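Interim report to the steering committee. The following record documents the input for tRNA pseudouridine(38/39) synthase isoform X1 (499 residues).
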Amino acid sequence: MSATSDKRIVINKRLKGLPREALEKLSQTELIDKVVQLEAYNFQLRNLLQKKLTEQDKNDEEYAVLFGKETEDCVPKETKVSSKAQKQRKFDWSSAHKRHVLLKITYFGWDYQGFACQEDSNDTIESNLFRALSRTCLIESRATSNYHRCGRTDKEVSAFCQVISIDLRSKYPPETQLDPSALSSEIDYCGLLNRVLPKNIQCVAWMPLRSPVYSARFDCVSRSYRYYFPKGDLDISAMQEACGLLVRHADFRNFCKMDVHNGVTNYMRNLQSARVQACEENQSKTGYDMYYLEIQANAFLWHQIRCIMAVLLLVGQRKEQPSVISKLLDVETNPCKPQYTPAIGLPLNLFRCDFRDKTTRSVNHPIDGNVNDDAMDVATEETEPSGAPAYSEERDLTNWIYSEENLQKLIENTQCEWTQFSVKSTMIRNVLHELEILLEDNFKPKEKVQAQVILLQDSVKPRQYQPLLERKRCESLENRIEHFVKKQRLIVKDETETA
């Protein structure tokens, strides 16, 4: 089966359970069997959660209902008392005003399991963010907050400019929210959130929006990521030449982890720019100089940048020619991805996001807090229906609102992070210097040890290198689609059916 232009592959969104009408037709024995199955499934899920959650997670109030008495025993009495007090002082949302905003978030992701909430982990950026939003009474619930995220970063990946769109509590009614006086005296969203967020997750700024349906996900026109790496023994000029071959609108199925079972069958992406550049102008001309790869695109596939970086590292090590980029992008000649390991996620940073001035979504677009967004940073193009009335002739975007006090505090916190890691880096560098002197004095090696980039390749160092295009291949896209169609996970539809 092939994914042709007149066919459309979609997820088979079957109901997870039988509808009420079908359940009413079941006998008592069949209903009891279903209840027993569900209880057994819930028991398995609880056991899985108990194994994966940390002690701090287990003591969290959110899991009290799931674990029952076991969790109640773990929760300190002070927590129970404060919980009761919070229930008594429940916020009255019936008279609260709301405004639609963008929030710019910065975080260091190396201590977290990724950005998006996960069923088996409470240790994600999004979990901490929504806990803070609820605790500060800025939202009633995630489901009613009209929430979208700009991008979904993986485990250990950081962001300087993660942006979310969301409805937050406001002091002012909608008709006066954009008045200068209302903006200057509005709730200090960033300061309020940063007081309860972890120090390595902080809110930098907020922006009032004119359209209630403006989306950080659908109205983002480009995302820029930076991947930091040491020079080591890399040929930087070869990597820069290879970057030039990446800039095109092409099928990147050989530069990503394909997620066909989630309905992703289109791997065409428009890479707007790609460059390798030194982090600092004054360099030591050694393998310890730091560089970064910066890639800008309208959207990215799952692990796309990490896969691109893995191939660029091979080019930099002179194991592959820059032309391998063009060969891998030629999916007619190479329809199946060679087997290789993506570069690690730790050095990756969502550095910048750019947004269109005016949303393409119509004002009657359903506002939902869909928690089941796609599993990767894939922008789905949404266009306003022809003939739909424009919401406003004005720009939907306004200006980012910063607080001097908040920025000073943020700089202070980040400087503390820098001090901690800079001290460690300097200590390690001094040890390396002493070790290198000992090696030189005692053995006079022909070549210096230049292993700085091995970690980025997941510490993989084969005895004999096998060229990418000669390696075993992964399954083709067409075979994967056929597999999941047979499994009834995907459905093939004619475009005429969905028009």
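The radius of gyration is 26 Å. The committee is asked to note this result when reviewing the revised timeline.
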